[in-house]
């Protein structure tokens, strides 16, 4: 069994973004931090982009949290409930969470409950440091995922 | 301390494939140009960087073929150090490149092209995508996604990341294949073989149904170029360069990539950022050549693995000499997927892949080094000139899509001649031009990888330069 296909997580945390573009790298860093906590039943995936083959492990997970930097989101770290798209344009090497959920449902038979945890980003320049705002957002996002794991939603 | 680089103007980045179709005085199509308006700029802003950073930097050129760039870059670094890398490192690089071939070709065949094969070119773009494919054949869509996943897993197991693995370095590679990784790859093989069988079955039906497309989707004489082994076996990472013509005759063989400037010229056109390489002895544009799967299968005598060799024999029967239809890039891609799986299986029994001797070490022993590797789309050249400290003075990259530029122009013109009458741009032509370009699986930007509907901007141009008609989609 391959690595991703073997994932049957109660909670799958997917952190995505470009770690060379400042605040855009916060998704991978949050997933990395959550992975280091070794929370029971929680698996993490880190990627630069959301690619179509992620639909397979997503379909096997109990619940999924996508963690991403956002420039179009409100000022605070925010949960957004995700629904699969009815149908959508699928890019070959980049997709959005709605489309991946639709792929998981249509191709692999199941779209789990999913959330988008967005962290407001302000600086997407060519460097590897976070702005002060994203440094705070990073801590808050990790805490929110820990709280989610303790919440009734995980039961 | 990190450095901040600001690149302007970003407005030069553009997401549409632009096509100009030129009409003659009689109102017939005389020529076509496929413009690339994305500006890459890597050659310039890499100047001054240490050559050791290049495998990491250049793989950021693309999210689809980072492996190809990192491997060609590492090979250029080997040449600057003037070292022979350890045999285990060469085999491991090859294994990663095979993973790259599998994932990229699976993407091209299943995600991008299969919706056209199954649903037809005249189906509305809104349905002619992977979701349309799911509705028509869910098992095929799933198998395609899983086959790509297999290729990505090989890359991730070796490089610890699917995209932008920091693994290949000048002189070798950083890590060997673990026993756990070996077992994981092996577990995928039965499914990968089963998926290729499904794909070949689909392809055979596609060929029966699409004889017309085989005739008009880029069917013309040209040269073909790629790497081959000394005995003419298919190559993807080592070997030397070979040119053959459309009669199947070898016109130049066992060329040393270090001297590529002796036989490859680069023409620059004012309408595109893509350079148009050509075979120098024949001049521009007579020296037009094609690279990629179709070329690699035309120039080689055998694949070197039994299942793919059986398919190669069938493939070669489709041409008189060389196979000249670009529509058959798809078939060549499938044969390369099969060969790659067979080679992966072979490597899994090789104890060298667990070796700890993975990296040759040396300083700068040559001020110029060229690295050549076969990317899924075709031959990729990285040419670096450095100073005594290993800082880059000059960089030249020749990518597959550039080398196919002239052939893509000719393909678009050939398709347009069959569909354009007067000043109208009929919808059937738009869909077929889109697929004609897709045969080459060009890697320009995300624009050409939109599944189902390629953003296109087509213009019909009169002999006096007046735009007769134009249409934009996407």
Could you characterize what this model shows?
The complex is a heterodimer of chains A (155) and B (474). With 155 residues, chain A is α/β, with parallel strands linked by helices. Helices cover 31% and strands 21% of the residues of chain A. Chain A contains 4 helices and 5 strands. In chain A, helix 1 links the parallel strand 1 (11-16) and strand 2 (42-47). Chain B has 14 helices and 15 strands. Chain B has helices spanning 42-45, 54-58, 66-81, 87-119, 130-136, 138-159, 179-209, 211-216, 293-299, 306-316, 329-348, 400-403, 405-419, 427-438; strands at 17-23, 29-35, 168-169, 172-173, 223-228, 240-244, 250-255, 264-267, 276-279, 289-290, 368-375, 378-386, 392-398, 456-461, 467-473. The radius of gyration of chain B is 22 Å and the shape is globular. Classes of the chains: A alpha/beta (155), B alpha+beta (474). The interface between A and B is large, with 32 and 41 residues.
Produce a short descriptive summary.
Chain A is of the alpha/beta class and 155 residues long. Chain A is built from four helices and five strands; from the N terminus they run βαβαββαβα. A five-stranded mixed sheet of chain A has the order 2-1-3-5-4.
